[in-house]
Design a protein that fits this description.
Blueprint (H helix, E strand, L loop, with lengths): L1 E11 L3 H39 L15 H10 L5 H24 L13 E3 L4 E8 L2 E7 L3 H6 L5 E7 L4 H9 L4 E2 L2 E6 L2 E12 L6 E10 L5 E5 L2 E8 L2 H21 L10 H38 L2 E7 L9 H4 L1 H16 L3 E5 L20 H4 L5 E3 L6 E3 H9 L4 H19 L5
Parallel strand pairs: 9-12, 12-13
Antiparallel strand pairs: 1-5, 1-8, 2-7, 3-4, 4-5, 6-8, 7-8, 9-10, 10-11, 14-15
Helix pairs in contact: 1-2, 1-3, 6-7, 7-9
The structure holds zinc ion.
Zinc ion binds next to loops.
């Protein structure tokens, strides 16, 4: 199952009172978003001068972030206090998020500060839309909460408005599915075009992915030391994905091991270290530290395996091919590390849940083979075709690429074991005739 999020627009049927109110809200949100952006900019400037004077940045949360800049608050009282706080909060967050995204460019003068248009859209949170009911295939009713308590009081109503949605071709089916809870409504927007208001409805649902998997598509997963996993897809020569950061793990392990070392060193000072409760306590803390490493790696492996299987689903790969790391006979030290085996195991388990077949390939030669011309290199002259851990350079065709990506691409080939076996046979025969140094 994968989560799908989509949008569909629905015309909001004209009603004088409703349209006037929507226009008022649109107007207020336009002013508020611009004011929030200016406040964020001013805060930034203030923050710089504060830093210059005091050598540190002021706490942001006190002014923007969860709470709005006091300036915006003051402004709301004047202009937007009748509007539901759900709309205002979301709009202000949007403006501040946008400012933060553009901040670096704005401060460098490469981009100007965002100016919102009078005709812009405004957000509607999912919980503001209630009681969707069907009248016929073209019209639906829903109740929309638009006002704050203050606004409702001023207008002498309960703040909710009955809205008639008009559907276009096929769009009604989506609303039917929302009604029978097959689809779930999400945070949406209201916008205006040619004097008509529209609801841009965002909805989500879960979809069986098994049906869309393509039997011809294979994802190759190379598990390695430099990068925990590199992905390739046989039918997509541009696809590549580097998963995770091995350095993150090694940093964590180094940090934890240092702590362990310090603890063990402290043992020297604990008098008789060989027995007694002091030693027991110490060993307990050492064990706790080892557990921390284990847990950290397991958590990472879960995250990575989930990501990899999701990538396979997104790329409609019915098969994942991965090196067989069980029953390891190779002398590569890292392969003996259980964490790689554990990652492989987790990928296998999660793939099966989604109906993806996992094929385990003999690890021999998948990193020696050039994915472009198929030539298989020998370990004897490894420094020539594998000048560094991360570089692969084919001695036969000159193809150069990331070594792990090259392996992943080999792993993404159908019946790669057979192809490698045939290639080896051919190279052996050629060697008899030519005696090339390559083989
Ligand atoms: Zn080649």
């Amino acid at each position: 199952m994968i989560k799908v999020i989509k949008t569909m627009k629905y015309e909001i049927k004209y009603d004088k009172e409703l349209y006037n109110l929507l226009s008022d809200i649109q107007h207020a949100i336009w002013l508020i978003k611009n004011r929030a952006t200016t406040a964020a900019y001013d805060w930034q400037q203030f923050s710089f001068s504060y830093n210059e004077r005091f050598g540190e940045y002021p706490k942001e949360k006190a002014v923007i972030g969860k709470t709005l800049a006091p300036d915006v608050y003051g402004f709301l009282k004047e202009i937007g206090s009748f509007v539901s706080s759900s709309i205002i909060d979301t709009a202000v967050q949007e403006a501040i998020k946008k400012f933060k995204k553009d901040k670096v460019k704005i401060l460098k003068g490469e981009q100007s500060i965002q100016i919102y248009r009078r005709s812009g859209s405004f957000p509607i949170r999912a919980h503001q839309l209630k009681g969707l009911t069907k009248l016929n295939n073209k019209t639906y009713h829903t109740r929309l909460s638009l006002l704050s308590n203050k606004g409702a009081k001023e207008r002498n109503c309960n703040g909710q408005f009955l809205v008639t949605l008009i559907t276009g071709n096929g769009a009604y089916e989506i609303l039917d599915r929302v009604i029978n809870e097959e689809y779930k409504m999400c945070d949406s927007r209201i916008y205006k075009r040619k004097n008509k208001f529209f609801l841009l409805l965002t909805y989500k649902f879960e979809k069986e992915i098994e049906k869309v998997l393509d039997e011809n598509r294979i994802m190759g997963v190379d598990i390695g030391m430099a990068v925990p996993a590199v992905l390739a897809v046989n039918e997509d020569k541009y696809y590549r994905q580097y998963v995770g950061d091995a350095k993150e793990i090694s940093d964590f392990v180094a940090q934890i091991n240092n702590r362990k070392k310090r603890l063990l060193r402290s043992r020297k000072w604990a008098g008789d270290g060989s027995r007694g409760s002091g030693r027991k306590k110490l060993m307990k803390s050492v064990d706790a530290i080892s557990n921390k490493i284990h847990n950290y790696r397991e958590t990472k492996n879960h995250t990575w395996s989930r990501f990899i299987v999701n990538e396979a689903l997104k790329n409609r790969c019915a098969t994942i091919q991965i090196e067989n790391l069980s029953g390891i006979t190779t002398d590569n030290a890292f392969l003996k590390d259980w964490t790689f085996f554990s990652l492989q195991q987790k990928i296998t388990d999660k793939a099966k849940e989604h109906g993806i077949k996992v094929v385990k390939v003999k690890p021999n030669h998948t990193s020696q083979r050039c994915n472009k011309c198929g030539f298989i290199h020998k370990d004897v002259n490894k420094e020539m075709w594998r000048p560094t851990q991360s570089n692969f350079k084919c001695l036969n065709c000159g193809h150069e690429t990331n070594a792990d990506l090259n392996a992943a691409r080999n792993l993404a080939i159908k019946e790669i074991e057979k192809i490698i076996a045939e290639q080896l046979k051919e190279q052996k025969q050629n060697a008899k005739h030519e005696g090339k140094y390559l083989v």
